[in-house]
């Protein structure tokens, strides 16, 4: 999963190639990007791992509702 702040997440050839390879690009606000970076540093994880975990948590919450 590619995590890019704001305008950097505009659709590019790289995003299309990543999607074809099973990767998704996600647009996030600068504040969410900063929070994700802090969580990744604090927990010793990659940005992708932190984002994946948050996405899975959100999906579980929706399924439980």
Strand order of the largest sheet: 1-2
How big is the Rg? 13 Å
**Count of helical stretches:** 3
CA-based shape: globular
Overall pLDDT confidence: 75
Tell me the strand percentage band.
Answer: 5-15%
Which regions are unreliable across 5 or more consecutive residues at pLDDT < 50?
Answer: none
Total of domains: 1
Distance between the ends: 26 Å
Secondary-structure element string: EHEHH
The biggest beta sheet is recorded as: 2 strands, parallel
What is the share of helical residues?
55-70%
Number of strands: 2
From the helix content, strand content and strand pairing, which structural class follows? alpha+beta
Polypeptide structure, described:
5% of the residues are buried. The chain has one domain (2-64). The protein is an alpha+beta fold. The mean pLDDT is 75. Helices cover 62% and strands 12% of the residues.
Strand and helix map with partners:
Layout: E1 2-5, H1 13-20, E2 25-28, H2 30-43, H3 47-64
Helix pairs in contact: 2-3
Q: Could you write a compact summary of the structure shown?
A:
The protein is α+β, with helices and mostly antiparallel strands and 65 residues long. The chain is built from 3 helices and 2 strands; from the N terminus they run E-H-E-H-H.
Index terms:
alpha+beta; two-stranded parallel ribbon; 65 residues; globular
């Amino acid at each position: 999963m590619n995590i890019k702040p704001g305008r950097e997440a505009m659709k590019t050839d790289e995003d299309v190639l990543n999607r074809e390879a099973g990767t998704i690009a996600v647009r996030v606000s600068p504040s969410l990007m900063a929070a994700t970076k802090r969580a990744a540093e604090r927990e010793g994880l990659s940005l992708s791992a932190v984002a994946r975990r948050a996405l899975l948590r959100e999906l579980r919450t929706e399924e439980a509702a």
